[in-house]
Amino acid sequence: MIKRKHLSTGVLTVIGILILLFMYIPIIVVVLYAFNADSVNYFPMRGASFKWFAKMAADDDLIRSLEHSLVIAGISTGVACVLGVTGGYGMYRFDFPGKSFMNKLVMLPLILPGILTGVALLTFYQAVGIHQGMMAVILGHSTFLIATVLPQVYSRLQQLDGNIIEAAEDLGATSSQTFFHVVLPNIQTAIISSALLSFTLSMDEIPVTYFLNGIFSTLPIQIWGMTRNGITPEVNAISSLIFIISLAAILISNMLSKED
Amino acid sequence: MIEERIQVSLQNIEKSFRNQKVIDGISLDVRQGEFLTLLGPSGCGKTTLLRMINGFEKPDSGSVLIDGEDQVSVPPNKRNVNTVFQSYALFPHLTVRENVEFSLKMKKVPEEKIVEKVNAVLEMTNLEAFANRKPSKLSGGQQQRVAIARSLVCEPKVLLLDEPLGALDLKLRKQMQMELKDMQKASGITYIYVTHDQEEALTISDRIVVLNGGHIEQIGEGNDIYLHPSSRFVASFLGESNFFSGDTENLSDGRVVSLRPEFLILKKDRPEGIAIPARITKVTYLGVYQRIELVEQNGLKAVALDSVDSEWHVGDNVFMTWDPDNSQVIQEEGDMVS
User: How far is the C-alpha of B176 from the C-alpha of B43, rounded, in Å?
Assistant: First the structure.
């Protein structure tokens, strides 16, 4: 009996490791070859160099697209946080008709394929007169990022002892004092964690951005364009950078949400 | 000192939740400076009544008056009432000191005054050593004190306590009961206390309001209610009681009489006056006295408490009697109120 248990645990472990390798070996290869001295991907690598990082930094189009991405991610995350926190708090404190429906509706952008969301938003914006461009992209990102923030904030609120809100009011606090001094400090980690996740999702986003951006480029779209002509080592360099920063953001986000 | 001045007045309060009547016409006057307890089983409406006073529930009809002023348009954060919640509801992100000074900070009291008042309250509740700890690092009893300290620093006219000792172990609970009683006497603040523990109510209260099914069964001092319960419910809820119906001589015509076990006298030979035959079914030695369970011929059970010197055995046939002064005629449900 024990032997069989060891066997199945062993098999599962091996399968688990294989899956992880399957997922991460390509990424590791990309990071490795970012330091390739050659411009062709020989195996094994014949020398190391930082020149692709330098080339990347000198690529104006690439840097400009990075700036666009940062602005979009920054503003969208900010908007999503404000709306997500107020929305989550509203749902937590008040019962209103359609509340359980809204609870499910909010998750929709995470479930729908990005292309669907992109086409839907484009159609809607054209109908109301919002042209493709920076504003459209920011609106689009903000919309689906709420789905990242609101559920996390709402869930964190439900873990609190609900009496602390009444206790605050009992002690003389106004509604806004209660929110800023009692509620907000206790959902801090949920907000930061979902903000980091939102920022990362926005930086990496392609389908929605593609439909809404018009003439300018965001980082992932620029890279995508670059790969059309074959994977240059410059692409490896920028991809490695994105991978490392995204990984850091998600790890911190994960740590913070585990703290609660 | 308990004055005759009425501090809180509830008038004809009615409240329903989802078509379920929770408070069914309650009127109650709370005197200034008294320790009043709302006592009753779960679901009797005692917590709801408390929440009408602090403003977190609104009555469907009827009024709540504090110091003679109708509180109908006064929100909880503006009432001169503070609450100690059953779960304590301490702010987890703040230290003990910060929890206690919270209300003063919200009201923008000057810094030096805050420090002065908070220190005084921390001293009164023996929390000075824990001032910089967060609630998660405190024991249940210490958290309890912080909840009280936090409310007392506001110097409210009325302090509401919603089963504050429920989560503590027996010894600590008894200790805290005494502390609360002393604190209340020293401060002169009106305390309105909610509990389902009748022993606790008898220990600490000046007056007890016995609640059942959304209405008041009886109000009075503990001693008075215990010896003169007005209904079967009160007699059973507060301590233990025997119930005898009047189809034996010397009892009033068909009405029910309540008798506390300590007043039930057992005799080997038929006595004069009241004499009900019964057989002993169980004898339990309790150190201070012995508890004797009996059954009458008609199957009704009774309980007596007797000194440990008396010799009683299971199976003994005895006569039950008592001094009519110690029994209480009670209202049965359905009886006309005389």
Answer: 25
